Amino acid sequence: MKILAIETSCDETSIAILDTKNSRLEVLSNVIASQVKIHQKWGGVVPTLAKREHQKNLAPVLTKALKEAGMLKKSKVAVKNSKLKEILIREECLYEKLKKFLEQYQKPKIDSIAVTVGPALEPALWVGVNFAKALSFFWQKPILSINHVEAHIFANFIQNQISDIKFPAICLVVSGGHTGLILMKGIRRYREIGETRDDTAGECFDKAARILGLGYPGGPAIAKEAQKYIGVTYVKLPRPMIYQKNYDFSFSGLKTAVLYDFRSRSSKIRKSKEYIRAMCAEIQQAIIDVLIHKTLKAAKNFKAKSVILGGGVAANNELKKQFQEKVKKDYNPPATPYIKFYIPDSKYCTDNAAMIAVTAYFHREEATSRWQKIKVNANLKIGDEVYPLRGLPSS
Ligand code: KG4
Ligand code: ZN
Q1: 265 to 152, 225, 260, 388: CA distances (angstroms)
Q2: Which residues surround ligand 2, an ion (CB under 5 A)?
Q3: Which residues line ligand 1 (CB under 6 A)?
Q4: Measured from the CA of 120, which atom of ligand 1 is nearest?
Q5: What DSSP line would sit under 290-355, residue for residue?
Q6: Which-ligand-closest: CA of 226?
Q7: CA distance 136 to 270
Q8: Domains of the chain with CATH codes
């Protein structure tokens, strides 16, 4: 079975092809066109620009993904299809590019098409969804609606056999669009037990980096500076909600504390390497402390057998290192039950279509030929049914 997956929920245009021979998953290609340079000058993702870039990038990314997977075969046909134009009515430049692609290349030997439908930026999501609908219609292939947050968890199943993962698991999804804890009792059995009440951890990294003049995206920039820190302390930042009894997070106060400290400094200190590095190390540590404490508290209270991380912030090496050390130290059998810690390779932490393809594999029986019914849901929750599903009345 081969799945072609499309991801356009934020500022990466990505297409992957997954091969699933005897339930062994192999990523044949995972092409990502990053828009970071476009959004950098605005200090964050601008939805209308993201939409335009996805429209430009999708056809070239598709060509590259099929080529890398060894599935790009030349052809020469004239495509005159008013339906195709109608599906892409809001994506004019995408229509022209896709038409050219379909005239040049044969229908690939794929079994289904998967696409992210939410939660994320609505205008960005629609480009990928309309593109997927056009391909589903033209190639007569079934389509699958995928939840982006669930996919960040499933990124762990690219390199680990799902059968090795023991449930219940506590999943921490920590990205720019989402920060929350999910109790996972099994495949597709979720309960969101906590989430951020304001900014996500990724937003906190991004906003703090902007205050310090480090550019976008803030996470990697702060991690880089923190690595050079040599031990001079300027300020102890808060660890918001760390000892509260719930599993919620709050990161906007941390960003504000960074802003107040920055404003209180002379321009000489603000520009000094020592100050920037010390602030970066402290911001990173404050976020790590909260994430580790709350996740392991949930793991203990729900008697989890696994802790699973996912999302762009999970690409942070220090977070990974400290999580691994803490799990090893605190869960030392036979005195305490054993917990296994999972984190994807960093290329599968940040947005990518391989994670969408793997999630689609686990939802494969939900594939539908009713592409007309596929809809974006910018506020989709994990565990929500993505329409159309089996059992719903057919139209
Ligand atoms: O998962 P992702 O690519 O997109 C969303 O679904 O939001 O996450 C992007 C976020 C950004 O806020 C970025 O600053 C953060 O992940 N990020 C990191 C690192 N790499 C990306 N944060 C901390 N350390 C990193 N190495
Ligand atoms: Zn994401």
Answers
A1: 39, 19, 9, 55
A2: 175, 351
A3: 10, 175-177, 202, 205-206, 217-220, 223, 311-313, 315-316, 350-351
A4: 6
A5: HHHHHHHHHHHHTT-SEEEEESGGGG-HHHHHHHHHHHHHH--TTTS---EEE---GGGTSS-SHH
A6: 1
A7: 53
A8: 2-152+348-373 (3.30.420.40), 165-343 (3.30.420.40)
Over range 306-323, report the average pLDDT.
98
Find tokens 């099994």 and name the residue: 186
Question: What's the rounded Cα separation, in Å, for the pair 152 and 312?
Answer: 9
* Chain segment 361-395, per-residue pLDDT in tens: 999 999 999 999 999 999 999 987 665 444 333 33
Closest-CA residue, ligand 1 atom 22, reads 219
Q: Comparing C-alpha atoms, which of 395, 381, 388, 335 is closest to residue 173?
A: 381
Interval 188-208: pLDDT, tens: 899 999 999 999 999 999 999
Q: Is 142 left (phi over 0), alpha (psi -120 to 50) or beta?
A: beta
Q: Say how many Å lie between the CA of residue 308 and the centre of ligand 2.
A: 15
Q: Residue 258 — very low, low, confident or very high, per pLDDT cuts 50/70/90?
A: very high
Instruction: Give residue 393 CA to ligand 2 midpoint distance, Å.
Output: 32
Q: Is 179 helix (H, G, I), strand (E, B) or coil?
A: strand
